[in-house]
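Folded chain entry
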Amino acid sequence: MKVTAIGGGTGLSSLLRALKKLVKEGVITELTAIVTVADSGGSTGRLRKDYNIPAPGDIRNCIVALAETEELLKELFQYRFEDGELRGHAFGNIFLTALTKVTGNFLDSVRYSCRILNTLGDILPSTVENVHLVAEFEDGTVIKGEDKIPKYARKNRKKIQKIWLEPSEVSAPIDTVQAILDADYIIVGPGSFYTSIIPNFLIEDIKEAYRQSRAKKIFVINAMTQPGETDGFTAFDHVRRFVEITGLDYPHMAIVNTRMPYYRLLQKYLREGQEPVVPDVANFAKNDIQVFAEDLIGEDDNFIKHSPSKVAQILKRVFRESAFLNVKT
């Protein structure tokens, strides 16, 4: 069974840890992650500006998530310098940048890094071109830069009306397109909706391959809303807005968390403007989407996030039950 996951940020990294378990169990025979390269903040943003390369940060996190090498090497790849001119840079970002300059090709640098860390799947960028995310808000303001967009939204309490890439006419690598076309299942999310998920689908090659693919499409819904991106979104709102922006069909299936975080941790998130995503499962059924709603939250005293073990278990159920569903392709 071939599975392709599309996204970015910590959401995709978490999903890949779940999918890695299913690779080890033999449930998944081929796994590919397609990762956004529109990130523009922190170490990634500085390296993009200095070396004119696609964003390496999300790629680095996904490589580590799928890595089967020794813990020391994984820690090295994630190590962030604390002093001097390298302060704030992650070693893995510098490594990917150096490999890009040595090989002359960002895609090759990602492939070599996957070999070095012995990943249990392929990791591919959505494009190898140096793209920037741009958004227009309801007040007419246009903001350029993945890291600046949610900041403006939070500060001014404005919603995103339009979103696009600059340059707009960019292509996806052939291998990226093929991984979508060949997949038996395509999984989108979880992750920052406008800045990690949507950027992939602003690339026409990816959107068209997704449309043409006969894979069963699964959308993993975020557990919490994100300030500046999905304030007030219900579970179904994520899918509805995805369809509105991309013009694609609704997915065949959706995975939704139903567990309410424990009170003390919930209070912390509420103070930061984040709320549990309401699992309005009836709206999925009304739009012919098979919904799998369960407790997906991990046991963590500091963060509310999907548990890789729980996600792996529900995905096994999704794969098993969808084999008998008469879903549209």
